TrEMBL record:
Name of the featured protein: Patellin-4
Segments forming domain GOLD: 300-404
Organism of derivation: Dendrobium chrysotoxum
Keywords linked to the UniProt accession: Cell cycle, Cell division, Cytoplasm, Lipid-binding, Membrane, Transport
CDD domains: SEC14 (cd00170)
Domain of life the protein comes from: Eukaryota
Entry-linked InterPro entries: CRAL-TRIO_dom, CRAL-TRIO_dom_sf, CRAL/TRIO_N_dom, CRAL/TRIO_N_dom_sf, GOLD_dom, PATL, PATL1-6_C_GOLD
Main subcellular location: cytoplasm
Length: 414
């Protein structure tokens, strides 16, 4: 949100917060919480790793002037528009309440100091047990990077106990996850006006409710609380996938830990709604294939410049056809197609323009329950026809794309 879009009262609060920060930094008060404030009375999630500042310690003015968050100096007279972006994150998280916002900034600074966050990128926390549980993959429609959190791989080969079998291992995972967050902010986000300064989190809850994974659930609760308290407005959406009825009961257990604003960013999807839910925020070509999209790892067929994705519909109880006209022989056509909600019958065929040629059935009619990719060498002009029969009562959305590759048939090669 640009400064011009703020209400007059919000602009004034931002101005007052800057004045309060300036005064507090110059008087060496920024890192010291008021012992009578509500902020100080709240319990912290993690035990301090490094306690560099005590409430009685005096820090030089020159050191105070270097206090920063994510590389942006907090002294307003020495900062730029990036500081406005950061301060607005804290203000929105506290509904533009000046004192509560200021206390939140203080708590975040103290937590980062005690937890050693500014040095965390230098630490070697990578573990073979954690790798793959969180990864960045693509962007949503508004340019926010998307972080996927997937834990089902931990069920293999005793990895779960190796990763979460003790309190120390759980704390190490949290520290690794904070490091991952900091790296994502540094590499993918920007505090410049008009740039993406938040990310989307997709959390796959498959196999997460078993009693044998209670340590992981507890650790995820702590992770969400850490992000809420110390990374305000850095999460544009938290999208929980493959949620079951039991997850709703589980959600009620940790809801009291969340602010209303944080909880409003939560989106929940049952297994049959995964693709449909992700499509509200992410284009199909940027959704991983395992979640019903087109994106494949190390895909050498479709690149960003290979053309747009087309969209059409099939009404309930109806049959529709998608056609790809081909005017040139000697090419190979590659295509992807998905039907949101699946539960349709699908057939592929090639129909030549020459009425004397035979139709070619490429794929017999079968139930489509996952993204389909296929290719076909074209001997003569004609059209590819994909027939989709929807026997349900609900209208379904179809996404498809195709590309042409000039190909030399095998029988012509030397």
């Amino acid at each position: 949100m640009a400064l011009e879009e703020l209400k007059p009262s919000e602009k004034k609060t931002l101005h007052d917060l800057k004045l309060k920060l300036e005064e507090s930094i110059k008087r060496n008060h920024l890192l010291f919480l008021d012992p009578n404030s509500q902020a100080q009375k709240r319990s912290t999630i993690l035990k301090p790793r490094i306690a560099s500042y005590s409430t009685n310690e005096v820090i030089s003015t020159s050191e105070n002037s270097k206090i920063s968050l994510w590389g942006v100096p907090l002294l307003p007279s020495k900062s730029n528009d990036c500081l406005d972006t950061i301060l607005l994150k804290f203000l929105r998280a506290r509904e533009f309440k000046l004192c509560e916002t200021f206390e939140m900034i203080q708590r975040t600074l103290r937590w980062r100091n005690e937890y050693g966050v500014d040095e965390i990128l230098k630490e070697n926390l990578d573990s073979e047990y954690f790798m793959g549980t969180a990864y960045m993959d693509g962007f949503d429609r508004e340019g926010h990077p998307v972080c996927y959190n997937v834990y089902r791989s931990l069920r293999k080969g005793g990895l779960y106990d190796k990763a979460f079998g003790s309190r120390e291992k759980q704390e190490r995972f949290l520290r690794w996850r904070v490091q991952f967050m900091e790296r994502g902010i540094q590499e993918l986000l920007s505090f410049k006006l008009g740039k993406a300064s938040a990310m989307v989190q997709v959390i796959d809850l498959t196999d997460l409710l078993g009693s044998s994974m209670k340590e992981l659930r507890s650790t995820i609760e702590k992770m969400i609380k850490i992000f809420q308290d110390n990374y305000p407005e850095f999460i544009f959406k938290n999208i929980f996938l493959n949620i079951s009825l039991r997850h709703y009961a589980y959600r009620a257990l940790f809801s009291p830990l969340l602010t209303q604003r944080t909880e409003s960013k939560f989106v929940f999807a049952r297994s049959y709604k995964v693709t449909e839910t992700l499509l509200r925020y992410i284009d199909p070509e940027n959704i991983p294939i395992q979640y019903g999209g087109f994106k494949r790892e190390n895909d050498d067929e479709f690149l960003a410049e290979d053309g747009r994705v087309s969209e059409t519909f099939v009404k309930g109880g109806k049959i529709t056809q998608v056609e790809i006209p081909i005017v040139e022989a000697g090419v190979t056509v590659v295509w992807d197609i998905i039907v949101v909600g699946w539960e349709v019958l699908y057939r592929e065929e090639f129909i030549p323009d020459d009425e004397g040629s035979y139709k070619i059935l490429i794929k017999v009619e079968k139930k489509l329950d996952k993204p389909a990719r296929n290719s076909f060498y074209i001997h003569e002009p004609g059209r590819l026809v994909f027939t989709i029969e929807n026997r349900t009562s609900k209208k379904k959305t179809i996404f498809y794309r195709s590309k042409f590759k000039h190909t030399i048939p095998c029988y012509k090669r030397n």
